[in-house]
Amino acid sequence: MSLGRSIATVGGFTMLSRVTGLMREMMIAHFLGAGTMADAFFVAFRFPNLFRSLFAEGAFNAAFVPLFAGHLAAEGQGEAEEFARRAFAVLAVALGLFVAIVELVMPWAMMGLAPGFGDVPGKMELATDLSRICFPYLLFISLTSLQAGVLNSLGRFAAAAGTPILLNLTAMAGLWALAPFTETPAHALAWGTFASGIVQFSWLAYSVRRAGVRLNAVRPRLTPEVRLLLVRIVPGAVGAGVYQLNLVINTMIASTVADGAVSYLNYADRVNQLPLGVVGVAVGTALLPLLSRQIRAGDHAGALDSQNRAMEFGLFLTLPAAVALMVLAQPVIRVLFERGSFGPTATQATAAALVAFAIGLPAYVLVKVLTPAFFARHDTKTPVKVAGATMALNVVLNLALAHPLAHVGMALATAVAAWFNVGALAWILRGRGTFALDSRLKLRLPRLLAASAVLWVVLWAAERFLHPMAAGPLAALAMTAGLVGLGLAAFVAAAHVLGAARLGELRALTRRGG
C-alpha cells in the first residue's frame, strides 16, 4: 500500500475515533462539568495513558515494528510470528506486575501526579479511587498495541486504527448505563474505561488471527531478540512520549493553580487532538514501516522523498487547522461543550487554552514525521536526548508562565516546547545527512503559509460579522458549521491559486500516494 493511501486509511479511521472522542468529551462535560469530579477523572485516565503512550504506542511500536518487519522480510512469517509471541509473553508478565505494584502505591502516586488535589476536600481520595479502576486499562491497551504493530507491519492499518473508536463507544455506554447505580458519574465513566481495554484487546486478537498470525501463549523468555527489543524501548520511551509527558507536567502544575484548571486543559487538548490524531498518528504509523523497508533495502533517496512528502502532507493539513482553531476557539468550545454542568465561564477558560495549544499543532505533527527517521535506523537514543532538553524547557516555561497566565501559560509552554523539539530533531538529521527539504517542499512551504494567512483573514472577518447573530445554541452551531465550510473552501482555493497544492494532486494522493 502506498504512503498516501496508508495515511488516508489510518487518517480516516482516526478521524472517526476523534469524532467519537469528542462525543465522549461532550458527555463528560454534561455529566461531570469542569470542576472537582472532572479533574479527578481526567487525572485518573491520564495516568494509564501516560504509560501507554510511553511504552506501548510510542517506544514499543518504534522498537517492535522495525524488528518484526525485518524478521518478516529476511526470514519469513514463521520467524516473525515466533518473535511476536515471545515479545507478547514478556510484555504481558512485565505489565501485569507493574499494574499490581502501582495499584498498591496508588495513593502516593496520586500525590505526585496531582499534588494540588489535596487542597480540595475529598478530591485526592476520589482521584485515587478512579485511578485504581482505570489503571488495569494499561495492561490490555499495551497488548493491543503489540497486536497493532503486527498488523501495521503486514500493511493492514484499518483494524488497529479503529480501536480508539471502541474505547469511546464503550466509555460512553458505561457512563450512560452505570451512572444511576454508581457513587458518582465519574465512577461509571471509570468502569466504562476499564471495560474498553478488554473490548479493544479482544477486537485486535480477532483481527490478528484473521490476518493469519497466531500469537499463541508461550513461556516468557528473554531471547536475544526480546532483549534487543527491551533495550530499544527504554531510551525511546521518553522520545516518543514527549508530548504526553509535557501534558503530565502541565497536569501537576495545573492541579496547584485552580479547581477546574486540569479540566480546561483536557477539554482544549481533546479538540486540539482531532487534527493532531488524524494527521500526526496517521503519518507516523504509515511512515515508520515504509522507512524501515526503504532503509533496509538501501533506498536512501526513496526514504528522503517519503519524509518530504509526509512533511508536506502534514503541513498542508495542520497549518490551516491551527489557524482555524485559533480564530474559532470560542465558538467551537461553546458548540461542543457548553451544556449541562459546563457553563460560559468554562467555555472562555477552555477556549483560551485551545488557542495556546493550537500554536504548536504543526509542530506536534512534524515530530511524528521526524522521529521515524531515527527509529527506522534503530537509533532510539538521540530522540531521548532531545526529549530531555524539550521537557526541561517545558518545565521552565510552565513555571515561568503559570503565574501570569494561569492554565493558558501551561498550554503555551507545551506549544513552544514542541517547536523546540522539531527544530532540534531536524538539525540533528540534517547534520547527519539523512534529511533535507527537497526543492518541491522549499517551493511550496511559503505558499502554504500564504494560503494559511488568507484563511486567517477570511475567518476573522466572517466570525466578527456573524457573531452577533449567534445568540442561541442552534444559531451558534449553524454559525460554526458555516465558518468551517467557508474556511475550508477559502484555504483550498487559496492553496490552488498560490500553487501550494493542486486539486488534482489532492485527489491523486488518496488514490495512489501522490
Essential attributes:
21 helices; 2 domains; mainly alpha; 514 residues; single chain; 83% helix
How is the topology of this model organized?
Blueprint: H1 3-32, H2 36-75, H3 77-104, H4 106-113, H5 123-134, H6 137-153, H7 158-161, H8 163-178, H9 185-210, H10 224-240, H11 242-254, H12 261-296, H13 300-327, H14 329-337, H15 344-359, H16 361-375, H17 382-405, H18 407-432, H19 439-466, H20 473-498, H21 503-512
Task: Give your account of this protein's structure.
There is one protein chain. With 514 residues, the protein is an all-alpha fold. It contains 21 helices and no strands. It has two domains: 3-436, no CATH class; 445-514, no CATH class. It has helices at residues 3-32, 36-75, 77-104, 106-113, 123-134, 137-153, 158-161, 163-178, 185-210, 224-240, 242-254, 261-296, 300-327, 329-337, 344-359, 361-375, 382-405, 407-432, 439-466, 473-498, 503-512. Helix 2 (36-75) runs parallel beside helix 9 (185-210), helix 2 (36-75) packs across helix 10 (224-240) and helix 17 (382-405) packs antiparallel against helix 18 (407-432).
